[in-house]
Amino acid sequence: MEKIEINGIELAYERRGKGAPLVLLHGFPLDHHAWDKIVPLLENTFELIVPDLRGFGESTTMDSPYTMDDLATDIAGLLNHLGVDKTAIAGHSMGGYVALAFARLYPESMSGLGLVSSQVLADPPDRKEGRYKSAEDVAEKGIGGIVDAMTTKFTSDEQLQGFARKSMERQDPAAYIGALKAMAERLDSTPLLASMDFPVVVIHGNADALIPIDRAYEVKDVISHVHFVEIKNAGHLPMLEAAQETADSLKQLA
To answer: 125-162 burial, b for 16+ CB within 10 Å, e for fewer?
Structure first.
């Protein structure tokens, strides 16, 4: 992976393919490998920019608190470094929150938005409290509790559960803590939807145990031009569980 220094961190990324630019943002607590099955299916359509978000994979983090806006600003700095003025961004789960923050902060730089197993709502109070409690548990006991709890919730596919577990286990506990707190404080992005005049793709598995598909339908109900894809029997990892269908859907952003 290539790396740049930006906003006090080292951001790692891959750049592959040719065509219109598309940024792929992974979810929590994974890294850019979450897109491994998708990249070969998209690299003849897009110039793919696939980073490790702050703290995850090969990217570094910092001890001070940060927000979804800070993660979006990291991506803006990367795009500036690469000379990309306008791009589509597809985000999985937490990556979708970052993509939405980017759309709010840099609307002139957006050519399209993809939300994969994500949502636009902010955390309700109980969920917010739960994220802070999880961050405390990681600080005190390590990441094992979250890894165990999330592995089977990601997907019912045992092979992909193994992939997810290995991915989660290699992440820095500091990344868990920072991201959990950032997700807890994220804004409600619902007001953004009405202003989105660029292509929007929403992809969601109807067996998602982490973010219910109802959250996807809430986006569909607001954006009349959304390309909405419900993937049957897929959980929280449609880009791995149904790679071809997910890739074909993301081509709507070209």
So the answer is: eeebeebeebbebbeeeebeebbeebbeebbebeebbe
Fold of 2-121+188-253: Rossmann fold (3.40.50)
pLDDT tens sequence across 56-75: 999 999 889 999 999 999 99
* The pTM of the whole model exceeds 0.85: yes
Separation CA 84–CA 254 (nearest Å): 15
Q: How far apart are CA 141 and CA 220, in angstroms?
A: 40
Phi, psi dihedrals of residue 73, rounded to the nearest 5°:
-65, -35
Determine the Cα–Cα distance for residues 113 and 243; give it in Å rounded to an integer: 18
Residue 69 carries which side chain, given as an amino acid letter? D
Closest to 32 (Cα-Cα) out of 75, 70, 77, 81: 75
Q: Which residues contact 63 (CB under 8 A, 6 or more apart)?
A: 174
**What is the reported pLDDT for 146?**
96
Measured N-to-C along each axis, helices 68-82 and 94-105 cross at an angle, to the nearest 10 degrees, of: 70
Burial class of residue 240 (count of CB atoms within 10 Å of its CB; 0-12, 13-18, 19+): buried
Instruction: Report angle CA 67, 69, 73 to the nearest 5 degrees.
Output: 120
CA distances, 60 to each of 4, 63, 247 (Å): 11, 10, 29
HSE of 128, CA atoms in CB hemisphere, 13 A: 11
Q: What is the pLDDT of residues 77-103, one digit of tens each?
A: 999 999 999 999 999 999 999 999 999
Could you please report the per-residue DSSP string of 102-138?
A: HHHH-GGGEEEEEEES--SSPPPHHHHHHHHHHHHHH
